[in-house]
Design goal:
The complex is a heterodimer. By secondary structure, chain A is α+β, with helices and mostly antiparallel strands. Chain A has 8 helices and 11 strands. Helix content of chain A is 51%, strand content 16%. In chain A, strands 2-1-10-9-7 form a 5-stranded antiparallel sheet, with no helix packed on it. Chain B has a 7-stranded antiparallel sheet with strand order 16-17-20-24-23-22-21, with helices on both faces. A 6-stranded antiparallel β-barrel of chain B has the order 1-2-3-6-5-4. Chain B has a 6-stranded antiparallel barrel with strand order 8-9-10-13-12-11. The chains are: A alpha+beta, B alpha+beta.
Chain lengths: 329, 460
């Protein structure tokens, strides 16, 4: 005979949950109701839920000013039979009604992966990751230290708190989103994830710089760099959405992938633009490290000289192609 | 006792008289030659407004065999009329060219370049001293000496003659032209010989030459043309194309009986000029000078000049450097968007004795990041650069990150701009950058230069 009444917000999320063990449940703004609804458009005695002898429930509107309905539009008949789990609107205020016998899904085990991700929000991890970023900043300052034109250490270190705050923007947004949807905010976990990805990026970037010098600026290093950037961002977003969103896993991953790939579009575009428009500036690899960082045998001069002939051939070919294009025009 | 006074008075008298004579002759010169001076206008067809202006002057040359009956021959009556209207004391007969001669307007190539390269977009017009307009047609160009010959139906009462003799240094010259479209003017100045360090012969005229006077004549006291106004370095430093170059162009125009497209002509002129210039450089015995812990080329030929600077005495920056810069900086003007012909070499020696190698190399790398062409070009004129870069072992067993970038000229065959840079990577705390740019060179010349240059730079 018991019935569960959930008071919902506009997004149909539960605000209050009441369980009433009676055959007749009064709903309204007055304090003598069984379920008191704090909404100025609801009458003092707005409606009643009644159970018949067969155990079926009906909603009776008590001739309220703003009426009751089973959807946001339209009004109910004076007596309306309701199904367990159905959403009803009293003067636009949504409520959901469950029979006490209503089945609930099976209990879910703790998600191991989720737990691992949440671990990143623990302070030891956060401190380690923050130290990683600080280390990178300090190395950068040390490398630039002999350059008199660079700002002082103290000035440069001002950028550290700014960076800390900047990195917190996206996690804060995700946490706010989750909070709004009545999930755990998990701000620190998102923040930890963010710092992890930035750390990974900086390490890979340093590795690729070294690789780039070793391979004389091979084109594929550039592509690896771009792909890595997209992959790291996609990974970050996937983990963020894993923690923050309540949609199906497939959707979360798809959303992360789409956003990650979109982030790669500007650099692809820049690559294309570079060939099309910025061609008055020569594009070459200027990475420079001491010879001891160069792992394989440098090529000899005759090889370079021979290659230069090919370079001229390439340019001639380029000229022929464009001259042909002009002719077609 | 009175003798000194007499001498002084005589000298004063002589000076005042002579200055009066000079003033008169300048006035006479201007009055006499004004009819043979034209403003040359490049007029855009669509807007019918002038896009560029310069000055031109009329000469006559013996007509080409096939041009004897051309419409460019002169009808005496019209000319004598105009001469009389202006009260010219010249008789019309003396100024008239015989029927077997041809009149040409001389100006700078850079004045008319747009009309040469884009005849469908621009046309040429002259404006004479009586504000009469007429058409001009380019018949010959010399891009190396920045000269153009134009045909016209304009019939002045006076023509310019080319001087047969070179003036002596200090001789008075008069430059004629229309600076900034302010009107035809006469600017007095002095002949100061040929510019010494320039690869291209240029007369140094001490007098104000301003834009708009380009293509105008500079004449001696007799009114004979000794040069064509071409450039100014400000502060009374003007430059003229010597009349010899004009005579050569006229001669080649007369000898040239076959009609060849200007682009073909320009291409041949560029190729020949650049081949000669680079040949001189390549054939020269390059003088090397000590530089940092190595050696680099010095002023390898007289027309390549070098400058240098260093910060060794300054304590503030831990990175010590010596820089040297050499160039043949006279450009060949091809269009408002494309110049060529420069040669530039640059050397830097860097040392950071108190720096960690990684700190040093970070600064070192920043020094080689931007490499740009030193001539002006638009993407319609040249292909994109293509580059190769490698760490290379040279003949001496030393190692350098070596970069070569090349681009081709779209409208001229076998002409390229080449940039080269080598940064030594043998040292932990010291580096040597050697760099050159060549513009408008053929592939064989560019490759020969690459070999010679890379072989000439050495370091420990």
């Amino acid at each position: 005979m018991a019935i569960v009444i959930e008071v919902l917000n506009r997004q149909l999320h539960v605000v209050e949950r009441h369980k009433v063990a009676a055959a007749r449940v009064r709903l309204g703004r007055a304090y003598d109701n069984d379920v008191i609804l704090d909404n100025k458009h609801i009458d003092a005695h707005h409606a009643e839920l009644r159970c018949d002898d067969d155990g079926l429930w009906y909603l009776h509107d008590l001739q309220s000013l703003n009426g009751s309905s089973s959807s946001t539009k339209g009004e109910l008949a004076a007596e309306h039979k309701i199904a367990s789990g159905q959403v009803l609107y009293l003067a636009g205020q949504p409520i959901r009604v469950f029979a006490a016998e209503h089945a609930v899904p099976a209990a879910q085990p703790y998600n191991k992966r989720e737990q691992q991700l949440v671990q990143l929000g623990r302070w030891p991890w956060l401190v380690i990751l923050a130290l990683g970023l600080l280390l990178h900043e300090v190395i950068g300052l040390w490398l630039d230290a002999p350059d008199a034109r660079q700002p002082l250490w103290s000035q440069a270190l001002v950028s550290v708190p700014i960076m800390v705050l900047a990195l917190a923007i996206w996690p804060a947004f995700l946490a706010a989103w989750a909070r709004f949807h009545q999930h755990e905010p998990r701000f620190l976990a998102h923040y930890g994830l963010m710092m992890l990805m930035v750390n990974l990026y900086l390490v890979f970037d340093a590795l690729l710089t070294w690789l780039n010098f070793n391979l004389d600026g091979a084109r594929w290093v550039f592509y690896v760099h771009e792909i890595l950037q997209v992959a790291l961002l996609t990974g970050l977003l996937a983990a963020n959405f894993y923690l923050a969103l309540q949609m199906s896993y497939r959707r979360r991953y798809a959303l992360a992938l789409v956003l990650g790939l979109l982030s790669g579009v500007p650099s692809l575009n820049a690559l294309w633009q570079q060939d099309e428009h910025l061609h008055l500036r020569p594009q070459f690899d200027a990475s420079l490290l001491p010879l001891s960082f160069y792992l394989h045998q440098p090529s000899d001069w005759s090889h370079f000289s021979q290659q230069s002939e090919q370079l001229f051939e390439d340019v001639k070919q380029l000229r022929r192609e464009t001259v042909d294009e002009d002719d077609v025009k | 006792m009175l003798k000194p006074l007499v001498y002084v008075s005589l000298a004063w008298l002589w000076l005042s008289l002579s200055s009066q004579v000079a003033a008169e002759s300048a006035e006479q010169l201007f009055a006499r030659y004004q009819p043979a001076l034209l403003q040359v206008r490049v007029v855009e067809n669509a807007s019918t407004a002038k896009a560029a202006i310069g000055t031109g002057f009329v000469i006559d040359i013996p007509a080409k065999p096939d041009a004897a009956q051309s419409p460019l021959t002169i009808e005496p009556t019209a000319t004598s009329d105009s001469a009389e209207r202006n009260g010219s004391r010249q008789t019309s007969a003396s100024s008239l060219a015989p029927a077997h001669s041809q009149r040409l307007v001389v100006t700078n190539y850079h004045v008319v370049s747009e009309a040469v390269l884009f005849p469908e977009k621009y046309q040429l017009q002259y404006l004479d001293y009586q504000e009469q307009k007429g058409a001009l047609q380019v018949v010959a160009v010399d891009v190396i000496n920045d000269l153009a010959l134009l045909s016209t139906d304009y019939q002045p009462s006076q023509l310019f003659r080319l001087a047969a003799q070179t003036p002596v240094q200090g001789a008075s010259l008069y430059s004629l032209g229309n600076p900034h479209d302010l009107g035809m003017m006469l600017v007095p100045g002095t002949y100061n010989g040929l510019q010494k360090s320039s690869y291209y012969p240029r007369v140094h005229f001490t007098g104000a030459i301003n834009s708009g006077m380009s293509g105008g004549p500079t004449v001696d006291a007799n009114g004979d043309v000794v040069g064509v106004n071409v450039a100014s370095a400000g502060n009374q430093l003007g430059f003229l194309v010597p009349v010899d170059s004009l005579s050569k162009l006229v001669a080649s125009y007369q000898a040239d009986t076959q009609a060849v497209a200007f682009k073909q002509h320009i291409q041949t002129q560029l190729q020949n000029n650049q081949a000669q210039m680079l040949d001189k450089i390549l054939q020269a015995q390059w003088q090397l000078k000590d530089f940092g812990n190595g050696q680099v080329p010095d002023e390898v030929v007289p027309f390549v000049r070098c400058w240098g600077e260093s910060n060794l005495e300054k304590n503030k920056d831990k990175l010590k450097e010596i820089n040297a810069f050499c160039s043949q900086s006279d450009e060949i003007y091809l269009s408002s968007r494309l110049t060529t012909g420069r040669i530039e070499m640059q050397f830097s020696w860097l040392q950071g004795a108190n720096m960690h190698p990684l700190q040093f190399y970070r600064r070192y790398q920043a020094r080689i990041q931007s490499l740009t062409a030193d001539n002006q070009a638009s993407k319609e004129d040249v292909t994109p650069f293509r580059c190769q870069n490698q760490v290379v072992t040279n003949a001496a067993g030393r190692h350098a990150k070596t970069i070569l970038c090349v681009r081709a000229y779209r409208h001229y065959d076998d002409l390229f701009d080449a940039l080269y840079l080598a940064a030594a990577v043998d040292g932990q705390q010291q580096g040597m950058i050697s760099h050159y740019t060549l513009s408008g060179v053929s592939q064989p010349m560019a490759q020969a230069f690459l070999q010679k240059f890379s072989g000439a730079v050495t370091w420990q």
